[in-house]
Amino acid sequence: MKKSILTGAITFGLLVSGSGHAAPAQTTDLLKNVESKVIEWRRDFHQNPELGNRETRTAKIVAAHLKNLGMEVETNIAYTGVVAMLKGAKPGPTVMLRADMDALPVTEKVDLPFKSTKTTNYRGVDVGVMHACGHDTHVAMLMGAAEVLAAMKAQLHGDVMFVFQPAEEGAPKGEEGGAELMLKQGIFKKHRPDVAFGLHITSKLPAGTIGYRSGPAMASADSFEIAVHGEQTHGSTPWNGVDPIAAAAQIVSGVNHIISRHIDITKEPAIVSFGKISGGVRSNIVPEKVEMVGTIRNFDMDNRQQIFEKIKTTATHIAAASGAKAEVEILKGYPVTVNNPKLTAQMLPSLEKAAGQDKVIMMPKITGAEDFSFYAQEVPGLFVFLGGTPLDQDPKQAPSNHSPYFFADESAFKTGTETLTRLTLDYMAQAK
Question: What is this structure's pTM?
Answer without folding.
Answer: 0.92
